[in-house]
Input
Amino acid sequence: MKNFLLKTCLFLSLLLVIRSVSANVSLVVLGDSLSAGYGLSQEQTWVAELDRRWNSSHPDINIINASISGETTRGGLSRLEGVLERHQPDALFIELGGNDGLRGFDLNTVRSNLKQMIDKAQQQGVKVALSQVMVPPNYGQRFAEQFRQVFEEVAKEEGVKLVPFFMEKIATNPDYVQNDGIHPTAEAQPKIADFLEPYLLELTK
Output
């Protein structure tokens, strides 16, 4: 009888573990220096901030930072297959394109790279959200507008959520921008996490 009860308890425990694992949701952030935390430690990034919050409030969600400083849409596209294979995520947040814009890359190429990334992820059943990205106004109003429209059009054509650019308001506060005038400070990371959290929670549902 004791052996039967012990086996039953072990079986039920195993079922709970299986259910718990199957209920977990993984979210990969594929971004550039704005998400990789240029000039900061990994523990200071907005991704790490969300991870700490969700460990308590949403322990079923695992957030993975696959961002690299200096990354372009071309680099993201070339890495994506390996990222998907390694992490097998349920959701993907693409935050790329800023370096393409700053380097004046061809907008059709940027558009194609973004679409290919979304298609590759969706073909594997991964939910995708795309971050809006903007370039500074000194790049010219015409180019800045055309660049902004690329993300809006890609999101619409691919049927994915377009998340507003999280740096738009951060960039106007000198306390939240590093001396290079581009990258967010450690103090800005919780603000970015506050802004992105509802969008990324929605993506994981």
Notes: Residues 4-22 have pLDDT under 50 and may be disordered. The CA atoms of residues 134 and 145 lie 8 Å apart.
